[in-house]
Every structure is written in C-alpha cells, then in structure tokens.
Write a structure and sequence with these properties.
By secondary structure, the protein is mostly helical. The chain has one domain (16-41, 49-211). The chain is 60% helix and 2% strand. The longest helix has 24 residues, at 18-41. It is globular and about 55 Å long.
Amino acid sequence: MRPVSDSPRLPPLFFRAWKAKSACAAGVVAYYIVGYFTLNRFPFQTYHDVLKVPFLDDLPLIPWTTVVYNSVFILAALGIGLLPDERAVKRYFVSVMIAYSLNYVFFALYPTQIIRDPLPESGSMWLWALQLTRDADGPYTCFPSLHLTNCTLVVIGHWHTRYGRWFLFWTLAIAVSTLTTDQHLFLDLPAGAVVAGLGAFLASKLNGANRD
C-alpha cells in the first residue's frame, strides 16, 4: 500500500495563484500598449541614430523570422503562467513595471530611429507578416530593446527553475530575429537586457525592504 500523505496536492502550475497571474498579465499588457505605442508614435522633433556594429547589423533580411520575433508575446505569457506562487508573481510584476518605466524614460529623453531596408515585392510568403509587423511597430523607440527587456525578465524570473535554460535559448533566437527582421540594431539588444537586469535588481531590493 502507498503511504497516505497529509500534505494537500497542489494544482497544476498554470492554475496556481491564477488570480494574481491574470492581474499581472492584464497590468503588463496595459502598461505595454499605452506606454510603448504612445512613445512609438509621438512626433519627437529630433531622433538619434544607434551606432551600427559591422556584420551583426548587416545580416540579411529573413521574412519568416518575424514568427520568432513575435513569439515574444508567447514567451512573456508563459513567463507569467509558469511562476510558482503569488509572491513570485508580485515580484515579477514589480520588476516589469520598473524595467518598462526605465525604457519609457529613455525613449522619451533619447528618442531613436533605425533605417529599415524596403521589403522586396516578392520572394517569400512571409512578407505579408513582416509588413504587418512594420505597420504596427514604427522604426522608433528602438534603444533599449523592449523585446529583449521582456525576454530577459522572463529568463531572470525562471533562472533557478527547469524552464530557465529553455527561456534563455528562446531569448537568443528572438534576439537574432530582431536583426533578421530589421526591427533592431545589435546595440539595442544588450541595452534592453541591462534594463531588465536593473529592473529585477530594484524589484528584489524593494521586496526586501517591504519584508523588513
């Protein structure tokens, strides 16, 4: 006979703290849409160019990688859904709010733009998807990369779990796709990762202060 355990069985990971996760996801999406797209379309008088890195910023345009590029939204959703408990959800939410705010301040104080190569008229069935991405996301607010900020926050939040390495590989694929879709230049990427690290660090400090 199997021993009877007195500890209650935990629900599947996605259903743990589901109210907190739902609120976190709604808050993140709302802050992203309002903050990012407002600044992306704001008519700043002056825009700055990001320094190009030879070879890395000369990668060919690969239209199908727009699928990888836009998979950031799936990664972000999984990043929230796979958090273990309400405390982790709150810590993650604070880190996102801080990191997003840092990005938005930088976008406003140092607006940047990139020059994208025109899309070919034919040659790939994925050109329509890349065009949709460009229509939604103008070539502004590029530095630091909010894409890499999002990805890095997920990696940090899950680094000590079995999902951390998988999220890292996924993040690296998304990083490459930002270059092969002409959505970013290389220097945007480490800048976005640094902002994420700073957001996570400040969130951990704030969480520690709240415990005291």
